[in-house]
Specification:
- The protein has about 475 residues and is of the alpha+beta class.
- It folds into 4 domains: about 1-100, no CATH class; about 105-230, Beta-Lactamase (2-Layer Sandwich), CATH 3.30.450; about 230-305; about 315-460, Histidine kinase-like ATPase, C-terminal domain (Heat Shock Protein 90, 2-Layer Sandwich).
- About 55% of the residues lie in helices and about 15% in strands.
- The strands form 3 sheets. It has a 5-stranded antiparallel beta sheet with strand order 2-1-5-4-3, sandwiched between helices. A 5-stranded mixed beta sheet has the order 7-9-10-12-11, covered by helices on one side. Strands 6-8 form a two-stranded antiparallel ribbon.
- Helix 2 (about 15-35) runs parallel beside helix 4, helix 4 runs antiparallel to helix 5 (about 120-135) and helix 4 (about 65-115) packs parallel to helix 7.
- The longest helix is centred in the middle third of the chain and has 64 residues, at about 205-270.
- It is rod-shaped, with a radius of gyration of 43 Å.
- The N and C termini lie far apart (about 105 Å).
């Protein structure tokens, strides 16, 4: 300001208007380089210099001509307004650059997350990417699903894991200005899935939220990868089990076929056998059939579990379907099943006979196992719209409402009967899968006061119109 005053007053004498113009330019330059506060000071100093050196009487802080008061006030207002506008433009430019930098950083981070190596821990890679791209001194990423904390950056965050767990529980960010450490909860779909802590990070609130969303996507990707891997392992396991059972079944059926042929041949010539020998041969013959059926069922169940089964549907009488399933239990001397005579008026169902019979046998076997020996198992069928519902009703202890869906899950067995009744926890699951493969369903009927009432719905056969 002094240089402009000397230049305009002594070196290159100019009139008051020209000097005011130079002072105004200098004030704008100060606002552009430093800021509004400095520009205001420069404007006041320029006003004083302009008054003292260029407005008469010169060398005094007084003004002789009243018109010069207007000029001086106009100069001061113009300088202040121009300084304010220049300062605002500067701040907007800096803000735009900051937003551009944040956008570029977030884009680079999203690209790095998409290109992470799935064979390595994704959480650790994400923490390192954040520290490198966002220029943070230290980063800690907590995954609440696995309970692991991943670190990135050149510095360390001591005792950060406990703090991150608290952030997840409270669901609110926290910061420590003296150490420049801040922590934020990570949420997806309204539920907390982790927390992020960083040291020396300088981002706007909007950029921080975008960063947390990217990290949430990365953590969800970890879960998706794990679920996919587990599903693939399970699928391969089921396929291997199915293949193994097919091979075992073939090995079993070969000697069973020989046993069956021998027992049938001996029974055909039963007149030469003693009564007790003929009775034992009959038992061998029946148990051979039963063993062959069990082997076939095991293979079918494995195929259903592996999703490899194909249905061969035909129109079948409900009565014959049920009686076929019941006959396997009658041959074992179990006569507790009643109600098959009530099925004669039922319409036909469109099912794979072997599969539907397998589902019925599983349900009947389940009812027999969970009912006291003297009690009776009732079978009943009803025609409902486009399906037939077969009900298997036992006189056991019943199923609590909280377990009526769980019992259809693989390997689920209620704690109250787990050690009392033999089983694998697969029968009901297989039966429901068979029903749903046909377009039907299997459920436990609500409102059963005593025992359990399983409802097997199968599609009705509809004859094509000519």
């Amino acid at each position: 300001m002094a240089a402009v005053t000397v230049a305009c007053a002594r070196i290159l004498p100019v009139n008051a208007a020209t000097a005011g113009f130079f002072f105004l330019l200098l004030t704008l330059a100060v606002a552009t380089v430093w800021g509004l506060a400095e520009a205001v000071i420069a404007a006041v100093v320029a006003m004083l210099c302009y008054n003292f050196f260029f407005l008469p009487p010169l060398g005094r802080f007084t003004i002789a001509d009243p018109q010069n008061w207007v000029a001086l006030f106009t100069f001061l207002v113009t300088a202040l307004v121009a300084s304010h506008l220049s300062d605002r433009a500067k701040k907007q430019t800096l803000e735009a650059k900051r937003h551009q930098t944040e956008t570029e950083q977030l884009y680079a981070l999203s690209r790095a997350i998409l290109l992470t190596d799935t064979t390595q821990p994704i959480g650790s890679q994400v923490a390192q990417h954040i520290a490198r791209i966002i220029a943070a001194d230290a980063v800690a990423l907590f995954d609440s699903n696995s309970g692991l904390t991943f670190h990135g950056g050149v510095d360390e965050l001591p005792n950060v894991e406990q703090a991150l767990r608290q952030v997840v529980i409270q669901g609110a960010p926290r910061s420590d200005p003296p150490t420049s450490v801040a922590a934020w909860p990570i949420a997806l779909g309204g539920r907390p899935i982790g927390a992020l802590a960083a040291k020396g990070i300088h981002l706007s609130d909007g950029a921080v939220q975008a960063l947390l969303n990217l990290v949430a996507i990365a953590l969800e990707r970890v879960r998706t990868e794990e679920a996919t891997n587990k599903a693939e392992v399970a699928r391969q396991s089921e396929e291997f089990k199915s293949t193994l059972l097919d091979a075992i079944a073939h090995d079993f059926k070969t000697p069973l076929t020989s046993i069956k042929a021998a027992s049938t041949s001996l029974l055909a010539d039963g007149d030469t056998l003693r009564a007790e020998h003929r009775e034992m041969l009959a038992i061998i013959d029946e148990e051979t059939d039963r063993m062959s059926l069990l082997v076939t069922e095991a293979v079918k169940m494995s195929q259903i579990d592996a999703g490899k089964v194909k249905l061969e549907r035909t129109a079948v009488d409900v009565e014959s379907l049920v009686k076929s399933a019941v006959s396997s239990f009658s041959s074992r001397g179990d006569e507790r099943i009643q109600g098959t005579d009530s099925l004669k008026e039922m319409p036909k169902v469109l099912v794979d006979t072997e599969m539907a019979s397998l589902a019925l046998r599983q349900l009947i076997d389940n009812a027999l196992k969970y009912s006291p020996p003297p009690s009776v198992i009732f079978l009943r069928a009803d025609s409902e719209a486009d399906r037939v519902v077969i009900r298997i009703i036992d006189q056991g202890t019943g199923i609590p409402e909280r377990d009526r869906e769980k019992i259809f899950e693989k390997f689920f067995r209620r704690a109250s009967v787990r050690d009392k009744v033999p089983g694998s926890g697969l029968g009901l699951h297989i039966a429901r899968e068979i029903a749903r493969a046909h377009g039907g369903d299997l459920w436990v009927e609500e409102g059963s006061k005593t025992g359990a009432r399983f409802c097997l719905a199968l599609p009705r056969f509809v004859e094509a119109k000519a």
